[in-house]
Amino acid sequence: MSNEINDEIMEQVRDRVSEVWQLPSRPDLEQDCIEYVYTEYLNYEWSMTYLVIKFLSKHCSQAVSSQDLKHMAGEQR
């Protein structure tokens, strides 16, 4: 693909990720997501929104749930 086409795709990815991004305090993570979506989109042409969800799912696999917090609070008593 030409550089012009790649630049257009990157611009589309940036716009789409920015539209759905819900973590304004994490611009660093947003940039990682943009790069991930761009690479995956070029390779597989998945939906960009799907790729954002896939990226966040991978990065949030170690997140603490509300159930985890309740369990931890019960252990401290």
Protein traits:
single chain, 77 residues, mainly alpha
- Number of extended strands: 0
Distance between the termini: 61 Å
SSE order, one letter for each helix or strand: HHHH
Q: Total domains, how many?
A: 1
- The proportion of strand residues reads under 5%
Which regions contain 5 or more consecutive residues with pLDDT less than 50?
none
Structural class: mainly alpha
Oligomer: single chain
Q: How many strands, what sense, and barrel or not for the largest sheet?
A: none
What's the gyration radius in Å? Answer: 17 Å
- The portion of residues assigned to helices is over 70%
Which outline best applies?
A: elongated
Mean pLDDT: 89
Question: What is the number of helical segments per DSSP (H or I, 4+ residues)?
Answer: 4
Give a written overview of the molecule:
The chain has 77 residues and is mostly helical. It has one domain. 75% of the residues lie in helices and 0% in strands. Helix 1 crosses helix 2 and helix 2 packs across helix 3 (48-59).
Per-chain topology:
Layout: H1 3-20, H2 27-44, H3 48-59, H4 66-75
In short:
With 77 residues, this protein is mainly α. The protein has one domain.
